[in-house]
């Protein structure tokens, strides 16, 4: 990978990591469903008027928009709102990698290797240790909500795989059309009209920055650059860099919100990251070892 492209990839993982902290900043002033709804409203408009609809079945665009906008980011934002720290949310969401492997096996008949099963078991151990953290950065409801987000993430990965679209920027813009209305409905059902009134009253530079950061560098620019790199280079060269997202997420939460990184949290985070590394590199290393033997 060229140095400039490597820098871009590292920059995007940094953006995706600290985005969790900027979501939390926005949640100090904005309802979680409204925050996510505005995010995807601005992802769709005005771009949808200038970008051609991707040439794939409508059901893929619609289902991705619901799962990505509502099931993933709407629910993850709600989880952060209910007390899970930005750093832990960025880490736990990586469980979506393992859920994707399981879904691919169930829906696409893809084989789950023994090494991937070992990686998943190790990740579950790390998740169990996270539950035992008592420094206030983990709440059970927040943990459950982020895990639901991770499951939604796995479904979006399957949709991308099945849809087979190559123009993922166009796909993201058009799919975002179907996220805002369900999110605004959820905001109304959970908070009533007052949450919309409070949004207007409480909107300030911090809230505007939170929304803008989620829309432009995180969603539109981030996915455009990342998917461009995947088209330019082998997936095996690009995808592993995603392992840096939770590292940047935890670091960002530490510096922005002074989230404490105690021994138990450090051990649990290390175990999950090791599991992700085994899932990503394990089979290749094993194959090289067998050839060497």
TrEMBL record:
Membrane topology annotation: Multi-pass membrane protein
GO CC, alphabetical: membrane
Entry superkingdom: Bacteria
Annotated ranges, domain EamA: 6-131, 141-279
UniProt keyword annotations, A-Z: Membrane, Transmembrane, Transmembrane helix
Chief subcellular location: membrane
Record's keyword annotation contains Transmembrane: yes
Subcellular location per the Swiss-Prot or TrEMBL entry: Membrane
SUPFAM superfamilies assigned: Multidrug resistance efflux transporter EmrE
Protein name: EamA domain-containing protein
């Amino acid at each position: 990978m060229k140095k400039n492209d490597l820098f871009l990839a590292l920059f995007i993982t940094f953006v995706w990591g600290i985005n969790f902290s900027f979501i939390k900043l926005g949640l100090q002033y904005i309802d979680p469903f409204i925050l996510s709804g505005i995010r995807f409203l601005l992802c769709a408009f005005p771009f949808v008027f200038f970008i051609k609809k991707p040439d794939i079945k409508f059901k893929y665009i619609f289902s991705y928009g619901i799962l990505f906008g509502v099931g993933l980011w709407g629910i993850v934002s709600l989880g952060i709102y209910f007390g899970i720290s930005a750093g832990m949310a960025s880490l736990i969401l990586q469980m979506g990698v393992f859920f994707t492997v399981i879904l691919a096996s169930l829906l696409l008949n893809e084989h789950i290797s023994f090494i991937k099963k070992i990686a998943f078991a190790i990740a579950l151990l790390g998740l169990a240790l996270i539950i035992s953290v008592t420094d206030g950065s983990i709440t059970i409801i927040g943990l459950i909500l982020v895990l639901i987000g991770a499951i939604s993430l796995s479904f979006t990965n399957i949709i991308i795989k099945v849809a087979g679209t190559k123009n993922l920027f166009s796909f993201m813009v058009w799919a975002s059309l179907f996220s805002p209305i369900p999110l605004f409905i959820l905001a109304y059902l959970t908070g009533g009209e007052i949450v919309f009134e409070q949004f207007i009253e409480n909107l300030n530079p911090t809230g505007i920055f939170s929304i803008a950061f989620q829309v432009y560098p995180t969603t539109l620019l981030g996915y455009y650059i990342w998917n461009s790199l995947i088209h330019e280079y082998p997936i095996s060269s690009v995808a592993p860099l995603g392992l840096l997202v939770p590292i940047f997420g935890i670091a960002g939460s530490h510096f922005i919100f002074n989230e404490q990184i105690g021994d138990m949290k450090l051990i649990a985070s290390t175990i999950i990251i090791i599991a992700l590394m085994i899932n990503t590199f394990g089979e290749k290393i094993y194959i090289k070892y067998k050839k060497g033997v």
